[in-house]
Design a protein that fits this description.
6-stranded antiparallel sheet; PPM-type_phosphatase-like_dom; Phosphatase 2c, domain 1; single chain; PPM-type-like_dom_sf; 7 helices; PPM-type phosphatase domain-containing protein
């Protein structure tokens, strides 16, 4: 499921996923649509259930930024599903597949007109552990909180990452993708933020945001969605005008 100005959730054997996206004040004032897009999903494989979350942020200077972001979400989900059938394959193949599928998704529009950033989180069961993969191209922030500690990609801590407009559809190299590939056991929390939030969340405040989102888990879906959208619309940073998207995923330990 992709979303803009929406929220959703699902519970499966103690797992929880939800997110929301709202247009930034500048787009609201100009009567423009939200140029962020997001999804979370899961699917069964012969080795267990795979979890996937994606956030894409269309570059505002591009005429088809909204279409590019939505295409990025679709392409990332398709690429992750296909790649997960061969979990021993190099992560580089996942990146290449995502890039090709995105170009097919936006065709016949020129890729440069649809440029978008992309954040992807993928959790694959591996015996009694999780294999967690974070991919990041462009700005925004991806984080995973596991028994091994907190790991982030992007955000204010990465000067190169936040000061460029690299994305799908812009000139870039494979090494412009930030990649984190790790194994862990036990409960895992994953957070994806578009730059409308990530630019204002230094790494030492990520645990606070995770804790607040964890506190929303047991609320009814309607109340949780209302609280999350209200927080995004009332983001307490004066003058911040970007679209804002957050996706949160918690998964428990891998079942024996």
């Amino acid at each position: 499921m992709t979303g803009s100005m929406t929220s959703t959730s699902e519970r499966l054997r103690g797992d929880r996923a939800f997110g929301a996206s709202v247009a930034g004040p500048a787009h609201v004032a100009a009567d423009l649509a939200n140029q962020d897009a997001w999804t979370w999903t899961r699917w069964r494989t012969n080795y267990g259930t795979v979890h996937c979350a994606v956030v894409c942020d269309g570059l505002g200077s591009r005429p088809h930024a909204r279409e590019g972001a939505r295409a990025g979400v679709r392409a990332a989900k398709r690429a992750a599903r296909q790649w997960s059938r061969a979990p021993g394959a190099p992560v580089g193949l996942l990146v290449r597949l995502l890039e090709v599928l995105w170009r097919l998704e936006v065709a016949p529009l020129p890729a440069d007109d649809c440029a978008t950033t992309c954040l992807l989180a993928l959790a694959l069961p591996d015996g009694l552990e999780w294999r967690l993969i974070l991919l990041a191209l462009g700005d925004g922030l991806a984080a995973v909180d596991s028994p091994e500690g907190l790991r982030t990609l992007g955000g204010r801590a990465e000067e190169h990452f936040t000061n460029t407009t690299v994305g799908l559809g812009t000139p870039h190299h494979m090494n412009d993708w930030q990649v984190h590939d790790m194994k862990t056991s036990g409960q895992v929390r994953v957070l994806l933020l578009s730059d409308g939030i990530a630019d204002d969340v230094p790494e030492h405040h990520v645990p606070d945001l995770l804790q607040w989102l964890t506190g929303l888990e047991d609320r009814p879906a309607a109340a949780r969605g209302q609280a999350l959208r209200r927080a995004l619309r009332q983001w307490p940073v004066p003058g911040h005008s970007d679209d804002k998207t957050v996706v949160y995923l918690r998964i428990g330990g891998v079942e024996a």
